Amino acid sequence: MSQGVPGTPPPKLFLDTLARVSADPRNCGYAENVGERSLREAVVQEMKVAYGGADGNGEVDVTAEDVAITAGCNLAFFASAMAVAEKGDEVILPVPWYFNHEMTLTSLGIKIVTLQTSPERAFQPSPEDCERLITPKTKAIVLVTPNNPTGAIYPPSLIASFAKLAHAHKIALILDETYRDFLNSAHLPPHHLFSKSSVILPTDWSWRSTIIHLFSFSKSYCIPGHRVGLICASSSLIPQLNKALDNIQICAPRPPQLALASVLPQLRPFVKDVAGALERRHTLFKDSLPSRWKVGAQGGYYAFVQHPFKGVDAMVVCERLAKEMGVVCLPAGFFGPVGEGGERWVRFSVANVDDERVRLVCERLKESEETFGWEIES
Amino acid sequence: MSQGVPGTPPPKLFLDTLARVSADPRNCGYAENVGERSLREAVVQEMKVAYGGADGNGEVDVTAEDVAITAGCNLAFFASAMAVAEKGDEVILPVPWYFNHEMTLTSLGIKIVTLQTSPERAFQPSPEDCERLITPKTKAIVLVTPNNPTGAIYPPSLIASFAKLAHAHKIALILDETYRDFLNSAHLPPHHLFSKSSVILPTDWSWRSTIIHLFSFSKSYCIPGHRVGLICASSSLIPQLNKALDNIQICAPRPPQLALASVLPQLRPFVKDVAGALERRHTLFKDSLPSRWKVGAQGGYYAFVQHPFKGVDAMVVCERLAKEMGVVCLPAGFFGPVGEGGERWVRFSVANVDDERVRLVCERLKESEETFGWEIES
After folding, report:
1. Which of A291, B149, B201, B292 could form a Cys-Cys staple with B308, CB 3.0–4.6 A?
2. Is the same domain home to A154 and A195?
3. Which residue intervals define the domain Aminotransferase class I/classII large in the entry (chains A, B) (predicted)?
4. Buried b / exposed e along A6-21 (16+ C-beta atoms within 10 A)
5. Mean pLDDT across B154-177
6. pLDDT score recorded for residue A55
7. Which residues 42-101 in chain A show a CB within 8 A of chain B?
8. Exposure class string for A248-280: b at 16+ Cβ within 10 A, else e
9. Within its chain, how far is the Cα of A39 from the centroid?
């Protein structure tokens, strides 16, 4: 239960369409740097549904000119980081972090300022803590929601607070929403930043001055190997991003762009089914987990769980779980510096396992309480 | 005649294979970061043919562990630059340069040290000039052969001199061979760097200590929109490159990797046909060019040509050619700082035009000598 990869195959409609466009010699040339216009337009329609309401009639202020298609969402983050910061600049990153974000920033010589999150606040980052970390060198705040690795889902009001904070300090808010489509109806819409009129944002609010939204087609449509992601940012920033994209990728692979463009609206039921299955598996995992393993946050692909062994680092627990129990999960230490008490947290992915295996894993965790012979937190 | 894009569709065998692997849900997951093993192995076989002789029996010392597949050759260059240099370091780049190389290095804060080439030496870079530019901050020399934009083909002995120079100074030689397959038999093999025993290299020569070879599948197989390129470098450098690749791309798109892996050897006749057609078009262009337009170098996709208008910058000539003659070509100024007299050079691409159009363009160039009313160099 360690890998953040989809557990179901992509929809047949997508595969058939992809096969058809792939066989067409006219689709072998370069795409536009910012991506196929047809896909950028289709993305806008999906964003209207995702952020405006199920009927797609919400007043979502996004146009195809705000969208750039990338060869995966990691490349989207890489290009965004390059566009807003350079060596010596600072970027605020909540901890636990997605390790590729950390590696990208480090490789670009950008200083990471860590914003610690804690189980007491269900791993929600604090805008107040964040504001104290802002310096003249800060260029961006990065949020991932639903979060990787913790699974924490940030409510719209919290996201709005961060957006206002970034706006007030004239820095970017990079919002990675790779797992956006796995929110249940209680959490919809994910936020109101793209709304033309939102009660929780100032009346003169304009997302374009602040927000860089990232999205991946890998998880929602189960096609990680096809490498398609996107950046949605002010159309005034897109040319700058485009320069970075031109150097790194020229363009994203073209056939999957064309295939997605023509089937996205028809795939809405598929995405909903995947989300529903994931939610049921989250519930099953929570219900099957031995009582002394505590869930700190849960959402998207992940659950962040505190193991019950007193004073034992999760690194050691995960090693024994893998070797002796055949259960693979990742310790908090993999996701950045852990705060006080943080060494006991473990990330489980529920995306790539079936229900039977979830139950089995939970039984093994229970077994480990006796087998490992460590003192159990009462 | 401005675009460096293939003028022919890809082979049907590739398209059919791609359609088949694209329809298979098993091929939608992430590939290995360094690329599909099957493609890396197939690449080694193609390199044996390219560098060892037509029968593939040459003693080419390359293994699948030396190869990493990238989402296009620009990403290969980007990752290589990141792996060898950081902000403040220097990289030597011959001028005229491929503008994406310049932009990538600049965007990474790497200082570009220009190595001027000139028509007197047919735009071949001089290893002696290059050596004088090496400082303690130099991390790499970049060569593109056949060159973009000049079309100059560097002979094996010159490439060997640069390799020895880089080796002596313990810096990397990044060798971008995107247009490698468009050499005629007189120019084969492109170089001897990968040979186990070469008379023009020291007996203890090891390419792995110095060489980072880049290649693109876009031109040879006419599939730029599928974004597949590669890095061939010491297997001891690959893990480092792999870290950069993991952050930028995770992996290259998977279906085109699988399709290429299974058909590469069968596509050798196709690549030869494309190369042959390109060579004939180069000859036609040279023969049709008005006598006062002088070819400085020719090869791969490009010809670098001196226009006959005395004291007129190529920028102005190209503008009028586009507006008044419908002929689009690019002035030397697009490819970096021009040396003395360099402002009169123009790049033509012969890849994306048919024979008829080549003749027509040459007629228009002849016409322009009268129409433009400028003094002609006698």
Report:
1. B292
2. yes
3. 15-365
4. bbeebbeebbebbbbb
5. 96
6. 56
7. 71-72, 74-75, 78, 82, 86-87, 100
8. bbbbbbbbbbbbbbbbbeebbebbeebbebbbe
9. 21
User: Has residue A1 been placed in a domain?
Assistant: no
pLDDT bin (cut points 50, 70, 90) of residue A243 is confident
Residues B70-99 pLDDT 10s: 999 999 999 999 999 999 999 999 999 999
Does a structural domain hold residue A378?
A: no
The helix or strand, by DSSP H or E, that contains position B297, with its residue range, turns out to be strand B294-299
ipTM rounded to 2 decimals: 0.90
Rg (CA), chain B: 21
Q: Are B86 and A109 in contact (CB under 8 A)?
A: yes
Residue A361 within any structural domain of the chain: yes
CA-to-CA distance for B279 and A246, rounded, in angstroms? 29
Query: Same domain for A79 and A206?
Result: yes
- The parent domain of residue A354 ranges over 269-371
Closest by Cβ to B253, choosing from A29, A30, A226? A226
CB neighbourhood size of B97 (10 A): 25
Mean pLDDT of all residues belonging to chain A: 93
Beta carbons of A10 and A221 less than 8 angstroms apart: yes
Q: Each residue of A110-151: pLDDT tens digit?
A: 999 999 999 999 999 999 999 999 999 999 999 999 999 999
- Does A134 lie in the same domain as A45? yes
Q: A357 pLDDT band (50/70/90 cuts)? A: very high
| CA atoms in the 13 A half-sphere facing the CB of B89 | 19
Predicted local distance difference test score (pLDDT) of residue A53: 67
| A42, amino acid identity | A
Mutate which: A227, A260, A267, A352, vs B, most B CBs within 10 A: A227
Are A104 and A247 members of one domain? Answer: yes
B248/A248 touch (CB, cutoff 8 Å), yes or no? yes
Least Cα separation, residue B335 to chain A (angstroms)? 15
- The H or E element containing residue B316 is helix B314-325
